[in-house]
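Example with several molecule types.
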Amino acid sequence: MNHFITLKDIPSKDLRKIVNNAKKRKNKRKNFNTLDIDKDNPLKGKLLIQMFEKASLRTRLSFYLAIKQLGGGTITLKANELHLGKGGESLADTARILSTYGDAFMLRTDSDKKIDEFSKYLTIPIINGLSPSSHPTQVLSDILTVEEIKKKSISKLNICWIGDTNNVLNSLIAASVKFSFRLNIGCPKNYKPKKFVLDWVKKNKGKINIYNDAKKAVKNADVIFSDKVISLNDKANKSKKIKDFKNFQINSKLMSFAKRDTTFLHCLPRGTEVSSKVFLGKNSKVWLQALNRVHVQKSILLYCFGKLR
Ligand code: CP
Ligand code: NVA
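Resulting structure tokens for the full complex:
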């Protein structure tokens, strides 16, 4: 069994295997209905327990469909309805019970420490469905989306991020090292990635450039990513932060500095960081991006169950 906690800690060859498996499975489902089970029924009888301590639409639905299409089932727990949430049961005992009833555990949480603690006591795999420091299932699925649209390996493409340094960017940075692609980051001076993240990139020979000018960052980009300036439970002074990012909105003007066929991607939900014109425009592939979450979640689950060939 394998946990799926951060991209940084998973070998590149396993991440590549997950993406390739997702491509193959997606192709095989061309005429399937949403709830049809894949022919090999690989997770028949398996139960995925999901728990969300923060809001979610896509991650919740994509894991629901993923386990169903693999032949298993899921239950979603509300964190505030457990004894753990009310302080009446320890995390260790909760983990032991989850391992007794379920076969895998997907957690979205506001605490990276909690994921680590769960991983110590669970005897089933845990999947990080978004934490303050990373959003690995999102970014791995974005690799599939990019390669599907551009029809080449992401290692041959220039990827750009315009926006806040947050969990999604941290995972994109890790992915840039693991999949060996060039990453330009455009953000205001005070919002650049932390030194320990950049040190890790340097140590691992990553190809990252940081620009305080969005126009420079998008030049030559094949793909531009963005995300909300204010993430879930962001404690920042919101109006100040939004003001700090005012020159980093992805709008038609900024897009005019990028390649004509630049693809725009965004994990959703969106805020003011992108204009509606760009978000709903011809360069945007955000709906395909959202749907691909299902396909990659399936291969992540198979990886966790040690069933990826
Ligand atoms: N992109 C994403 O993770 O969406 P949700 O927060 O709706 O799950
Ligand atoms: N950075 C965002 C991602 C939401 C999917 C957040 O943490 O809220």
